[in-house]
Design brief:
The complex is a heterodimer of chains A (about 525) and B (about 375).
Chain A lengths: L14 E10 L2 E11 L4 E5 L6 H8 L7 E6 L2 E3 L4 H6 L2 E4 L11 H6 L13 H15 L14 H14 L4 E5 L7 H16 L3 E6 L2 H7 L2 E6 L2 E7 L5 H9 L19 E11 L5 E11 L3 E5 L6 H8 L5 E8 L2 E2 L6 H6 L1 E4 L3 H5 L6 H5 L10 E2 L2 E2 L1 H14 L16 H14 L4 E5 L7 H16 L3 E6 L2 H7 L2 E6 L2 E7 L5 H8 L4 H4 L1
Parallel strand pairs in A: 3-8, 3-9, 6-7, 7-8, 13-20, 13-21, 16-19, 19-20
Antiparallel strand pairs in A: 1-2, 1-4, 4-5, 9-10, 11-12, 11-14, 14-15, 17-18, 21-22
Helix pairs in contact in A: 14-15
Chain B lengths: L4 E9 L7 H23 L4 H14 L3 H24 L7 H19 L5 H30 L3 H21 L29 E4 L2 E4 H19 L1 H11 L1 H6 L4 H28 L4 H7 L1 H11 L4 H21 L8 H21 E9 L4
Antiparallel strand pairs in B: 1-4, 2-3
Classes of the chains: A alpha/beta (about 525), B mainly alpha (about 375).
Amino acid sequence: MTTVVDSKAVTAPAVAAFGVSKRFPGVIANDDVHFDVRVGEVHALLGENGAGKTTLSNILTGLYRPDSGHLELSGRRVSFESPRDAIDAGIGMVHQHFRLIPTFTVAENIALGAARDGERVLLNMASVESRIVELGEQFELSVDPRARIWQLSVGEQQRVEILKVLYRDARILIMDEPTAVLTPLEADALSQTLTSLTRQGRSVIFISHKLGEVISIADRITVLRQGRSIETIDAVGATRESLAAVMVGREVERVQRRGVGALPGAPIVLSVNDLGAEGDRGLPALRSVSIDVRGGEIVAVAGVAGNGQRELVEVLAGLRPRTSGRIEVDGETMDRADARHPIRMGVAYVPQDRLGTGLAPDLSIAENLVLKRYRRPPVARPPFLRSSVIDAEAASLMEQFDVRAPSSQTPTRRLSGGNVQKVLLAREMSGRPKVLVVSTPTQGLDIGAVATVHQLLLDAAAEGVGVLLVSEDLDEVLALADRVVVMYEGSVTGIVDAADATVASIGVLMGGGTAEDVA
Amino acid sequence: MSLASRVGLRLEPRVDNPRWMNWAVPVCSFIAALLVGSIVLLITSQNPISVYQRILERGFLDTGSLSGTFISATPLLFTGLCAAVAFKVGFFNIGGEGQFYVGAIFASGIALSLGADAQSWIAVGAMVLAGTVGGALWAFIPGILRAYFRTNEIITSLMLNYVAGIGATYLIFESDSFWRELGGTGAVFPKGKIIPLSAQWPSFDLGNLVVPFGLLLGAVVAIWLHVLQRRTRFGYEMRVVGGAPSTARYAGMRPARVIVAVAMLSGGLAGLGGAADVGNFRHVLDPKGLQQSGFGYAGIVVAALARLNPIAVVFVAIILGGITNAGYALQGPDFPAGLVGTLEGLILFCTLGGEVLVRYRIVNTRRQAVAS
């Protein structure tokens, strides 16, 4: 591969796909995809889960080879044998889940794997470090090359990932959902970096399913749906509604409920007082957290992932011991860290890891629907289980919650994400809970399923259940919640009424700011 | 970059598991093992077809051969169930061997202490119980270590096999224990006391076929296990704990207790096998014989070939029992003594290889690259 630029390259797009198709057994992941990225452009690939974004980026980075169609870089046809070829051709991937070694320094991580054939075996760390500083100045990506990864914030780690591909001389950067792990402030900084990159002739392919950020960050947007490239749209003039319609193929109604609030005089069904707990490594993860939820109310817990939300819901579900504080459910004190106790008290819990924690993937839908009631009649007639009762309940719950599956005997691992979530909510609601704790209930679901899940949560609240919704998606939080609890480093930094909240005000609290900073 | 054209094979996870694969894969693995085995035979200048034919005759077809096969199959049935029930919940009990020994020690001990005057059904019942308890206690150790101290049960259960083997040897060869025959030739050549006639398990004579009580008991236990796994609350817990431990915890189950219970159930089955071995066949605690047989390890092969299904274990045990039985009968200058062991190893190897095909499909990725 040579780096000689021929005259054609001046006008040709930096990268272009012509009729790219890729099939997997039973699925067409990419079907005749066309798109082109201009030099110095941020080009978004927008699509729901399963629309083919990941497959396309794997083809661009040489991980997969297209079954038909081809790629062109600067007007020249290329065919990648391996990821190495794509890197040599100047394509770099910034992964959503960072591929960094926590105990190595920034420079060591960047140098890792960057050496080429014929280069010296020994690393000259000083030259690596000075090159990193240079790149950092050039692209406004300042980070200390000697810092160790574990000492860095998530935003800084992402900068290291970007520097890693720039160090390898990438002209085209592919970023997979880069804002998913960032606070709104960090996302703004990222958008600055993108501007600086494109001004200096680099091109960015920005993969996302978030409509708002795509409009604000990208220059042009190619929408993928069911593996096909539907349309390429200028970001200027695009609206969320118009993009959503193209993305889903029909108009989507957004569920809205803002500050409807608990019924007047509704009792407090969940009262968390001064709660403390340790994380997996034995360090304090929750510090004196207090939250009240009334019946019929939706209280959202917002925050960047990893600020104590997981520990909070695990304590509520009896899966993690607490080190201090009190939990009361409908006036009754929860005394032990034991999953059976909250279940009996009426705390339903939909965990973030649906198939790994919420369901037994190899067991059938029917068996999963009785997972929390298998011990007692009518499901059990000790020592036996009554399959007639189990099947009858499955039939009625599947109908009520519109679970689509070949039969109630289908293993849950074969279900789509939306149906998995419906099975979980069906089971949790069938226990007639007082409190429903849900953790990132729509993460990874497509737009249609998101609307269904939102409606189910609203239905639960309408029935008088107190809903505690943990979510990183601020649009979701603002659309559903009556009140928003913001967490940062294990503490509650603010509780705001959803009616008064904005993405910006919550964003400040998510970054550790206080209510005064908001004002 | 050079022009390249390669053929690559890749494994892709199966989206779907068709039902026919449940039996097709073990059957094909078995045939593949026979094919590989015939290569071994050809290298040793044997005619594979005639060797296999003789195994078939001596194991299953000749008059009386099936009775002998049943005797070989009985211990394999129990150790096969032992491995199957434990592996199903992800408790890799390699200790069936040691649990079998301990079951034999307990069963022979109770038979000897009840003496010759005990009623037969009491003596046999006591041996069944004692063997089960012995095996369960032996498996309790790796069970509790795994469940509460996260110790690797493969290592602990394997090591306890040696402890049990040495223990049994001590009882007969290195001490004047209750189990050792001190009178007669026993004073010179160490051996165990023979259990009283009333404690010896019956065999049912059906004309040409003799069915040992132990085999029938094992078949009944296999059916019981199947019902336990599919129809009961405990079986449901086993399936959830085995497939999704964190889901089990989430649902308020006690995975640690389930693991300990399954470990004891598994060990109890092997211990019952040890009791059957003493009661039905050896009538004596015979450490050397036990350790040479390696029933516990062979049980792992049985369980794997049966894909951990208790009912299938019954049939697989009889098939492997037949091969073992034929091996005893055919051993001689023209029949290599190690052949049966080699075949068993090949069968396990091919079965485990076949498991890959159940979970993945092989894709041919012919790669053609264009120079650029």
